[in-house]
């Protein structure tokens, strides 16, 4: 398979050289090829991304800037993630892998923040072959096969960390995961120096879940009702209630999980429900991203059309910023 692509790649180089040579000396051709997106993609595909500092370097400033400019309305999550990831990456000898559990309503930025971490750690961003993403309903749908899933998941984690210690595992829809399944990766999250010759301490595990969203929203609502600034909400206002409610929630994927019991989750990261003004910011950013001139009127119209809760106050967007991409198409 690979050999075919290698042949094809060599062929591609030759052909492109013939074309470019008509106009340029050969020395610049190779430089040119190195910089063209297609050339680079082809090169990566054939020769592969490798598990070294050429492909994996953490950019702390980059993450800080991205969190600051691209993520809206999540001052708590931003701060926790920045600290947690920077601390972990700067630690030459971490005692265990980094384990983050992100909680909040849909569309509040949990997936997005994982993407920002990826983009500032792997040169290939989310396309990196060292990132492994699991979606409960897609990868582990049937309760009857839970034992198979467990051994499969263990093999995957072990195999991939053996390949590259700096691997990242993202588990989406934790709230839809069958209780008990995630506990099968517990040995890898513990404080072992190594396990059967594999060391897991460089890896990053991220769990995404809607569980706890109600609790977080209640806190945000209480602040709002008390006329307090949302930015005054601190991690300690949310985290204790969050970890308990996740532990005691049968639909959290972490129900009575030994991961919590044994304190293997380093941070529970709360994502606040988004308000109208945040939807506007998402909308403007989305328009820019689409290459459109950001237009306040269009974004306003789109934001007004969304559903907000609670019914009486209508403060928080029920779907966060999730559906605005498609909606903008409708309004522009
Ligand atoms: C890190 O990120 C900053 C901000 O995005 C960027 O200016 C800088 O070039 C990046 N550094 C590296 C080494 O990529
Ligand atoms: C790595 O994980 C993927 C799932 O994301 C799996 O398909 C693959 O077999 C794993 N690789 C190894 C070497 O175990």
UniProtKB/TrEMBL annotation:
Residues passing through the membrane, by range: none
InterPro entries linked: TOR1A_C, Torsin, Torsin_1/2
Signal peptide, first to last residue: 1-22
Keywords carried by this UniProt record: Endoplasmic reticulum, Glycoprotein, Signal
GO molecular function, one term: ATP binding
Residue ranges constituting the Torsin-1A C-terminal domain according to the UniProt record: 274-331
Statement: the UniProt record of this protein carries the keyword NADP: no
Cellular component annotations (GO), alphabetically ordered: endoplasmic reticulum lumen; nuclear envelope
BP GO terms, sorted: nuclear membrane organization; protein localization to nucleus
Xref: Pfam families: TOR1A_C, Torsin
Subcellular location: Endoplasmic reticulum lumen
Family: Belongs to the ClpA/ClpB family. Torsin subfamily.
Protein name: Torsin
Organism: Oncorhynchus tshawytscha (Chinook salmon)
Species classification: Eukaryota, Metazoa, Chordata, Craniata, Vertebrata
């Amino acid at each position: 398979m690979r050999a075919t692509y290698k042949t094809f790649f060599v062929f591609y180089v030759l052909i492109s050289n013939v074309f470019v040579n008509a106009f340029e000396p050969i020395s610049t051709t190779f430089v040119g090829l190195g910089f063209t997106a297609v050339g680079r993609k082809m090169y990566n595909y054939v020769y592969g991304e490798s598990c070294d500092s050429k492909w994996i370097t953490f950019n702390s400033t980059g993450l800080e800037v991205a969190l600051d400019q691209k993520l809206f309305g999540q001052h708590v999550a931003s701060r926790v993630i920045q600290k947690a990831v920077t601390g972990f990456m700067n630690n030459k000898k971490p005692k265990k892998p980094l384990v983050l559990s992100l909680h909040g309503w849909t569309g509040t930025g949990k997936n997005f923040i994982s993407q920002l971490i990826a983009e500032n750690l792997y040169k290939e961003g989310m396309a990196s072959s060292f990132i492994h993403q699991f979606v409960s309903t897609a990868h582990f749908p049937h309760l009857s096969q839970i034992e198979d899933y467990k051994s499969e998941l263990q093999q995957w984690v072990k195999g991939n960390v053996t390949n590259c210690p700096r691997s990242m595992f993202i588990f989406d829809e934790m709230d839809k995961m069958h209780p008990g399944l995630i506990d099968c990766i517990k040995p890898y999250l513990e404080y072992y120096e190594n396990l059967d010759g594999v060391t897991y301490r460089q890896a990053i595990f991220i769990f995404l879940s809607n569980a706890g969203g109600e609790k977080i929203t209640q806190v945000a609502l209480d602040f709002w009702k008390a006329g307090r600034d949302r930015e005054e909400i601190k991690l300690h206002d949310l985290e204790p209630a969050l970890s308990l409610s996740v532990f005691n929630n049968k639909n959290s994927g972490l129900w009575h999980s030994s991961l919590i019991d044994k304190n293997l989750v380093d941070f529970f990261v709360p994502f606040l429900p988004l308000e109208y003004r945040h939807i506007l910011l998402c909308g403007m950013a989305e328009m820019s991203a689409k290459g459109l001139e950001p237009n306040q009127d269009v974004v306003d119209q789109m934001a007004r059309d969304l559903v907000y809760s609670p019914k009486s106050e209508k403060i928080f967007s029920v779907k966060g910023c999730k559906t605005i991409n498609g909606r903008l198409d409708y309004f522009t």
